[in-house]
Amino acid sequence: MTVPEPVIAELRTAAAAAADKLATNIVSYDVGERLGITDAFLVCSAPSERQIGAICEEIEHQLKEQHNSAPARREGKDSGTWVLLDYGHMVIHVQHEQERAVYGLDRLYADVPKIDMDLPEGPSTV
Q: Of the CATH numbers 3.40.309.10, 3.30.460.10, 3.40.50.11810, 3.50.50.60, which one belongs to the domain with range 5-108?
């Protein structure tokens, strides 16, 4: 695995924040060797635009509070169906369940290592 421990700590904070806001299917991928522009992706889903917004807000809040980390850019906040939070060393994708099925990031990165998010087993984790 190529993801540095500080990045894994931030990914776990983001995953926990997403889970707290009832995100589903939370998965993290080590994409560093494949992409070279970021270390990891965190991907999660929600059934509504309102919930996607709440998940993103909580992720940003917790990463700022616990790691003093803020996204370099945000994409898609106005669309409400797929929000991308780019932290440079990691990229967080919060997708509507239908968008996730259509765009298939999980299929695209099925052959890269997953990163254990250390979340309790339940409906929000894979």
A: 3.30.460.10
Ranges of each domain in the chain: 5-108
The reported pLDDT for the residue numbered 79 is 78
Taking only the tens place, the pLDDT of each residue in 28-75 is 999 999 998 999 999 999 999 999 999 999 999 999 999 999 999 999
Q: How many CA atoms lie within 13 A of 10 on its CB side?
A: 26
What CA–CA distances, in Å, run from 107 to 5, 14, 29, 30, 101? 26, 22, 11, 14, 9
Helix/strand/coil (H/E/C) assignment for every residue in 14-44:
HHHHHHHCCCEEEEEEECHHHHCCCCEEEEE
For the purposes of burial, counting CB atoms within 10 Å of the CB of 126, is it exposed (0-12), middle (13-18) or buried (19 or more)? middle
Distance CA 56, CA 48 (A): 13
Answering whether pTM is above 0.90, one says: yes
Strands (E) in the chain, as ranges, are 24-30, 40-46, 73-75, 82-86, 90-96
